[in-house]
Structure formats: structure tokens, C-alpha cells
Amino acid sequence: MNKADLIDAIAAEAGFSKADAKKALDAVLKSVSNVLIAGDKVSLIGFGTFSVAERSARSGINPLTKQPLNVPAKKVAKFKAGGELSAAIN
User: Fold this and answer.
1) Homologous superfamily of 41-90 in CATH?
2) Residue ranges in 3-75 assigned as alpha helix (H)
3) How far apart are CA 31 and CA 67, in angstroms?
């Protein structure tokens, strides 16, 4: 499912127009992004939790040249599924 398909599904489920569904989805995604950028987490009970994790610096190997390289530390977004979502999938 891509973003357009998700907008169609939201519009059908909530009875919104596609334009209103797009505005709602964009607002949710922007809000979640802003919270993660601020370093906090978003918990949606039953669905899951979005958070930010730090990956430490490490050494790696370039697969093409086989030369060692340093991979810098960085922050990454994480998602952990909630109980209801996990149960629904299984």
C-alpha cells in the first residue's frame, strides 16, 4: 500500500473526501515527525510506539572494494508494534 492507497482507505473508512483524508494523514505524519525530531516518542495504545534510537559508530567493510570504513553514529526511527496490532497480524 502506498500513500495514495492509504488516503483512499482513510477516506472510505472515515467518510471523508480524499482531500480531507490527505490533509488528515499529512497532519498526523507531520506531528509524529515533529515529536521524533524533538527526541520524544509517540505511543498509540494498541497500535504501537514510534521512538528514536541512537546507533553507535562502528567499523564496516565496503563490499565493492573490501576496504575498511568507519560508519558514523546516527539516530534512527524505530517502531514497536502494540499488542492489538501484533495479535491482529498473527
Assistant:
1) IHF-like DNA-binding proteins (4.10.520.10)
2) 3-14, 18-37
3) 41
> Are residues 26 and 38 in contact, defined by beta-carbon separation less than 8 angstroms?
no
Q: Mean pLDDT of all residues in the chain?
A: 95
If we measure between CA atoms, which residue out of 12, 10, 43 comes closest to residue 27? 10
Alpha-carbon distance of 68 to 36, in angstroms, equals 32
pTM for this predicted structure: 0.80
For the chain, the distance separating the N- and C-terminal CA atoms, rounded to the nearest angstrom, is 19
Every domain of the chain and the residues it spans: 1-38, 41-90
Q: If you average pLDDT over residues 4-8, what whole number do you get?
A: 96
- What whole-number distance in Å separates Cα of residue 61 and Cα of residue 67? 6
Name the nearest CA neighbour of 73 among 47, 55, 49. Answer: 55
CA distance linking residue 84 with residue 90, whole number of Å: 10
